[in-house]
Amino acid sequence: MLDLTGKNALVTGIANSRSIAWGIAQQLHKAGANIGVTYLPDEKGKMQKKVSDLVEPLNPSLFLPCNVQDDEQVKSTFTTIAEKWEKIDILIHCLAFAKKEDLTGGFSETSRSGFHTALEVSTYSLAQLAAAAKPLMKEGGSILTLTYLGGARAVPNYNVMGVAKAGLEASVRYLAAELGTANIRVNAISAGPIRTLASSAVGGILDMIHHVEEVAPLRRTVTQLEVGNAAAFLCSDLASGITGQVIYVDAGYEIMGM
C-alpha cells in the first residue's frame, strides 16, 4: 500500500552511513521514490565523494551541493531542480549544527555566534528550503524534518540545540498552517537518541542512549531504518490527513514520567 512511485524526493543532510537522513533515503527509495540528494560542500571535496559513494546504490537522479548558509547556493540548487525535475513531491530536512563547545556545560554560557549559528542552520533552514520548494510542489507535497525530545524538555548538554529544535517544531506548525491551502503537509519526526556524526558532539550521548535502553517501554533505542519507515509513511498518501505534527519514533521513551 505504501507506494511512492513517480514521486520526486529531495533528501538533505546525509553525511555518512550512520546518518538518519541515509536511513530515510533508503526507505523512500525502497518505496519507489525518485531520489535527489544534496551534500554540504567542502574545499577538498571529501564530503562530495563520501556521500556520492554512499548513495550510489539509490541511483539518485540529482546530486547537488547545498550549503544553507549560502543563499546563492540554495537558489542555484533549486534552479537546477526546477530544470531537471520540474516538480518536487517530498522534501526531507535533516540539517542541524551547533558548535561543540555549546553542547556541554551550562546553557547560559552559549556564545552569541554559537546561538546564531545553531538557529540559522538547524531552524531557519527549514523555512528557507520550504520557501524554495513551494513553487515546485505543484501537485501538493510533503515536507518532513527531524527533531528531538530536547526541544520539548531540558536534556543535559543539549543546550542551544534544544532551543533550536523548539523553534524548529514551532516552524513546523506555522509552515503547516501556511502551506496547507497548497496541499503541502509539514511534519516532524522526533527520533530517540541515535549515534550519528551530529549526535557525537553532544556531551554524554552514550549515557543518553543507555538510559533510553533501560527506561523506554521497548527497552531499546531505535534505528535509522525505523525512522526511515515512519518518514516514508508520513510522505505517502497514507498520511494524507496528517500535518503540523511531531511524531515520536523513540521506542516509547517520550511517554515515561521516570
Summarize the structure in words.
Keywords: Fatty acid biosynthesis, Fatty acid metabolism, Lipid biosynthesis, Lipid metabolism, NAD, Oxidoreductase. NAD(+) binds at residues 13, 19-20, 95, 165, 194-198. The protein is of the alpha/beta class and 258 residues long. The protein has one domain (8-249): NAD(P)-binding Rossmann-like Domain (Rossmann fold). 39% of the residues lie in helices and 14% in strands. The chain is built from seven helices and seven strands; from the N terminus they run βαβαβαβαβαβααβ. Strands 3-2-1-4-5-6-7 form a seven-stranded parallel beta sheet, with helices on both faces. α4 (112-133) runs parallel beside α5. The model has no long low-confidence stretch (mean pLDDT 94).
Quick structural gist:
The active site is at 148 (proton acceptor), 158 (proton acceptor). It contains seven helices and seven strands. By secondary structure, it is an alpha/beta fold.
